[in-house]
Amino acid sequence: MSVQNVLDKIKENSIQFVDFRFVDLSGRAHHITLPSTEVDADTFVNGVAFDGSSIVGFRGIEESDMVMMPDTESVYVDPFTDHPTLNVMCNIHTPDGERYERDPRSIAQKAEEYLQKSGVGTAAFFAPESEFFIFDDVRYESSMNTSFFSVDSEEAAWNTGRKEEGGNLAFKVGVKGGYVPVAPVDSQQDIRSEMVRLMQESGLRVERHHHEVATAGQAEINFRFDSLTKTADNLLKYKYIVHNVARQYGKVATFMPKPLFGDNGSGMHVHQSIFNGDTPLFWEKGAYANLSEMALNYIGGILHHAPALIALTNPSTNSFKRLVPGYEAPVNLVFSKGNRSAAVRIPVAAVTPKGCRIEFRTPDSTANPYLAFAAMLLAGIDGIKRKIDPTALGYGPFDKNIYDLSDEEKKEIRSVPGTLNEALDALEADSAFLTEGGVFTEDFIANYVAVKRAEAKAVDIRIHPHEYSLYFDC
């Protein structure tokens, strides 16, 4: 879309405000809003200034001036504002016009440029399955003398005996019993449908929605794949709509990987493939799961670099509460066709040559999608360039339920890191594949690790409520 097309859209839709947005290190969006009367062609040339020192992991106060450069391909009309507003994603530049090396969106674009320069293919396509919970009540506190969280949902398994409803209507969702039931067990059909409606109006092509496995309102909405940066833009749009529709219904949505103990957590399974023009490069009819050698090498790169990747795809302390055996969590670093106990699954049902893809099941939605998708692509390209054979390295194929194996059999299978700090250690030891082509810089990685270690320490030094259960009577 040209700048003139955007200006025409502002006029045609009687837009009163233009919301300029960028994404921080953690993947959260920030915005500055201009009256549409202050937006003209020069705005898209000169950008919008902001204070980078107020964003964690960006710049110090002595060099805080930064510029948002709007991307005209990312615009959509905000579905929630009372005053007609046009949203636009931006890249971050320094005052002298250089692309800021710590800008996650610019890193995603550099990864796409590196793919084209590598000769491997012309485009990488991504499709995340980002799961979430919809709760009715969320309360938490962490202070000197208090630490707790409490969540509630009208459809939660623990509410079968609750009286406060004015007559309990039953039909609660059991633990691990929430996969695609109909109403009245699934009480959130209309909420998800409203989310889908607004996603479609905002330009997303939505394929389906359904209740997910866990109790207490776990949900999933799938939108169609696109190129790397566009898909990351779409995921931010998706989360924005999910959060705000839930709020409109008097509920609250969270993409936190493990908000509940004892039931499945929320992942972000990421489907990915590479094309050369219109030709899919991951398909080879008759091979294992109809995968080409390139696709297998891509899988090899993902699994070989997985411990380091996970620092970017699962970058929270809470991520590792989900990555434990027994809750459909993909903790095993192997690949398999149609097997959801493997870290890399190859979908085989109703798959066409153009739909042939691999699915990395370990990530979750605390990931910054621009960084996570870029890192996965770079790991895959490294596997292709080095011809990493996942079978020769013992990564599969593993076509059996890994959860049912004996402890002795499991010893041969690599697992994901057990903590955020372990993943950060792996990233520090294995980051060269990320700096290929200047996509990530050593400065970015060092800064990222420092920010994430601070988060891990903030959790480690605090007293956990369960410690009272274990140790108070010592």
Describe this structure in words.
The protein is an alpha+beta fold and 474 residues long. The chain has 2 domains: 3-100, Glutamine synthetase, N-terminal domain (Ubiquitin-like (UB roll), Roll), CATH 3.10.20.70; 123-465, 2-Layer Sandwich (Creatine Kinase, Chain A, domain 2). It has helices at 3-12, 41-46, 104-118, 189-201, 228-248, 293-304, 306-313, 319-322, 369-385, 407-410, 420-429, 432-435, 442-460, 465-471; strands at 17-23, 29-35, 48-51, 65-70, 76-77, 85-93, 123-135, 137-142, 147-152, 206-211, 218-223, 226-227, 252-254, 268-276, 279-280, 332-337, 342-346, 358-360. The strands form 3 sheets. Strands 7, 10, 11, 12, 13, 14, 15, 16, 17 and 18 form a 10-stranded mixed β-sheet that branches. Strands 1, 2, 3, 4, 5 and 6 form a 6-stranded mixed β-sheet that branches. Helix 3 packs parallel to helix 9, helix 4 packs across helix 5 and helix 6 crosses helix 9. The longest helix has 21 residues, at 228-248. The radius of gyration is 23 Å and the shape is globular. The relative contact order is 0.12.
